[in-house]
From TrEMBL:
<comment type="function">
    <text>Alpha-L-fucosidase is responsible for hydrolyzing the alpha-1,6-linked fucose joined to the reducing-end N-acetylglucosamine of the carbohydrate moieties of glycoproteins.</text>
</comment>
<keyword id="KW-0326">Glycosidase</keyword>
<dbReference type="GO" id="GO:0016139">
    <property type="term" value="P:glycoside catabolic process"/>
</dbReference>
<comment type="similarity">
    <text>Belongs to the glycosyl hydrolase 29 family.</text>
</comment>
<dbReference type="InterPro" id="IPR031919">
    <property type="entry name" value="Fucosidase_C"/>
</dbReference>
<dbReference type="InterPro" id="IPR016286">
    <property type="entry name" value="FUC_metazoa-typ"/>
</dbReference>
<dbReference type="InterPro" id="IPR013780">
    <property type="entry name" value="Glyco_hydro_b"/>
</dbReference>
<dbReference type="Pfam" id="PF01120">
    <property type="entry name" value="Alpha_L_fucos"/>
</dbReference>
<dbReference type="Pfam" id="PF16757">
    <property type="entry name" value="Fucosidase_C"/>
</dbReference>
<protein>
    <recommendedName>
        <fullName>Putative alpha-L-fucosidase</fullName>
        <ecNumber>3.2.1.51</ecNumber>
    </recommendedName>
</protein>
<feature type="domain" description="Glycoside hydrolase family 29 N-terminal">
    <location>
        <begin position="24"/>
        <end position="360"/>
    </location>
</feature>
<dbReference type="InterPro" id="IPR017853">
    <property type="entry name" value="GH"/>
</dbReference>
<dbReference type="GO" id="GO:0005764">
    <property type="term" value="C:lysosome"/>
</dbReference>
<keyword id="KW-0732">Signal</keyword>
<feature type="signal peptide">
    <location>
        <begin position="1"/>
        <end position="19"/>
    </location>
</feature>
<feature type="domain" description="Alpha-L-fucosidase C-terminal">
    <location>
        <begin position="371"/>
        <end position="458"/>
    </location>
</feature>
<keyword id="KW-0325">Glycoprotein</keyword>
Amino acid sequence: MAGAGTFTLLLALSASSLATTVINKYEDTKYEPTWESLDSRPLPAWYDEAKFGIFLHWGVYSVPSFGSEWFWAQWANKEKKYLDYMEKYYPKDFTYQEFAKDFTAEFFDPKQWADLFAKSGAKYVVLTSKHHEGYTLWPSKYAYSWNAKDIGPHRDLVGELAEAVRANNLTFGLYHSLLEWFHPLYLADKASNFETQEFVDNKILPEMQELVNAYKPDVVWSDGDWESPDTYWKATEFLAWLYNESPVKDTVVVNDRWGKDIPCKHGGFFTCTDRYNPGTLQEHKWENAMTVDMASWGYRREAKLSDYFNVLDLIQSLASTVSCGGNLLLNIGPTKDGTIVPIFEERLTQLGQWLDINGEAIYGTSPWTYQNDSMTWGVWYTKKDTAVYAIVLHWTWSENILELASPLELFQDASTTVTMLGNEDDGNLPWKLGDTVSITFPDKATAKSEWAWVLKIEAKATLPNVV
């Protein structure tokens, strides 16, 4: 592997030889390169119906697998934890680039991964094609010597996973970082206060078009935008090309990370901040991107069991997110050799078991008038057609009787029925209307769902959509 100086020179030479622009002039196109025009594009329906996806953070940072996926930046910033780690285990002149040769992915089995994702109940998968370190998981001609084909596994990891994911009838998407911490062209643009755009013209725009044309992702999940405005990134020009001319123009969805003032204001769906979960109904479609490991997006060898969310935590995140109009994008970090460690496999499998029974209350639903119950804690609502679903996270009350305050209007008609998903063969559950509605649960030992329980409340008339 080349040293840091050689690596920097190679990047600079490769970038300087590229064309200075890849974005066409937009004449007579449906969407203009303005936020007003781009924001008028309807969000493709598949995304809202899917509700649940898997996020994967995988790259050279998976080799040290220590601290977080920001290892390189934190080490370069001389944070003590990282300096001590490197001093203890690596030679003094060791460079971050030297980690790449050990990003081997020798146990990476894309079919096995995709089978697990399908088993989890997820409907789409988003892979980090390139994180802030600049290393690409595909053989990009704009990342000479710093991609998974040239150094490390010597494989097209993006292409292999895309094929396997789609073979499982899941939708495939790609995360892509705009900035690269130590790319010389980016650093030069940054030094000019982003008055120059050499990095964008010669690296980022052609790279993103290459990625979309080669792999046709139906999610383009942008990140690394926070240091500079959307005009520096030429974000609206790229999105106009994506919506008008790209091979995924009719199906692709994008997020909101296209410039330092753009998140939560513009884009197909909003992510706003990492682990965004407002707990209230939002007017614009949004996504809760969160991690099973509470402290990191990438795999950490030093993580403790207490650092991981348990399955009920994850079900609660899914229920609250969907109830408030969002999608859950749940992140795991594979290892450098391409394995998904058992704790992640277990959590995804448990979610799949829950969704096998209760997915009717998640997929294709809409927010209801109320998102959670006004009296009983830990109850979240969704709706579909004539049914309201009450997702009950805790079964702690006495005599198996649940009291609910929010859905009283649904019980004004005696013909309203209540069943428990997975226990439909037991028939309708008894209910009684007073100041609250009292619903009698079956014996807990007979409940098919292990962690949270869903009541299907069916009224006569089709219920109106809230959003």
